[in-house]
Amino acid sequence: MNKHEIQVLLNQILIGQDQYQNPLERVVFLHCNIAKIQPFIDGNKRTSRLVECLVLMNNNTILVYSTQDKDILDYRKALIHFYETGDYNLYSDYFLDRQIERINQLSLKTDIIFDLQDPNKKTTHTIANKKTNPQKVSNPMALKKIYSLS
């Protein structure tokens, strides 16, 4: 692919992101598509993850990351699946699983727990009580409800 073709595709991706109002959907779209066109000699997935982080930060949403070998393998499999099929589902599942995991990690470090049935309601608990009886997000549908995903 030549420089002009890459610029055209990148512009299409940047314009195409406007169809996604939900930041999580936008992140999946941007990440998969920027990584797929390989606009740089090196660092395409890292650049895609940086864009992902910027969109999440600009929307006050928890950043997703993992350094575990299994997660890295799942990440690569999901992207390859997207490259070959254009199907976002595996990457969406990977991304939402990491979101849930991150929320659970952070919930153990704070004294505020958000009610999954009513995201605007929050309750405070002592750290000791939280560690002995932590509430966890275990259902991806609950996360989708929090972020109003369809």
Task: Describe the model.
By secondary structure, the chain is mainly alpha-helical. The chain has a domain of 103 residues: Fido-like domain (Fic-like fold, Orthogonal Bundle), CATH 1.10.3290. It contains seven helices and two strands, in the order αααααββαα. Strands 1-2 form a two-stranded antiparallel sheet. A hairpin with a 7-residue loop joins strand 1 and strand 2. Helix 2 packs antiparallel against helix 3 and helix 4 runs antiparallel to helix 5. The longest helix is centred in the middle third of the chain and has 19 residues. It is globular and about 50 Å long. The C terminus is likely disordered.
Q: What brief labels describe this structure?
A:
mainly alpha, 150 residues, two-stranded antiparallel sheet, disordered C terminus
Kindly summarize this structure in a few lines.
This protein has 150 residues and is mainly alpha-helical.
Secondary structure: elements and pairs:
Elements: H1 3-16, H2 23-37, H3 44-58, H4 69-85, H5 89-107, E1 112-114, E2 122-124, H6 127-132, H7 140-146
Antiparallel strand pairs: 1-2
Helix pairs in contact: 1-2, 2-3, 2-5, 4-5
The percentage of residues in β strands lies in: under 5%
Using the coordinates above, name the CATH class of the domain at 3-105. Answer: Mainly Alpha
> Number of helical runs?
7
Strand order in the sheet with the most strands: 1-2
Describe the main β-sheet briefly: 2 strands, antiparallel
Assign an overall shape.
globular
User: Could you tell me how far the N terminus lies from the C terminus, measured between alpha carbons in angstroms?
Assistant: 35 Å
DSSP strand count:
2
Nearest-angstrom radius of gyration? 17 Å
Order of helices and strands: HHHHHEEHH
Return the CATH topology of the domain at 3-105. Fic-like fold
Quaternary state of this entry equals single chain
- The helix-and-strand class reads mainly alpha
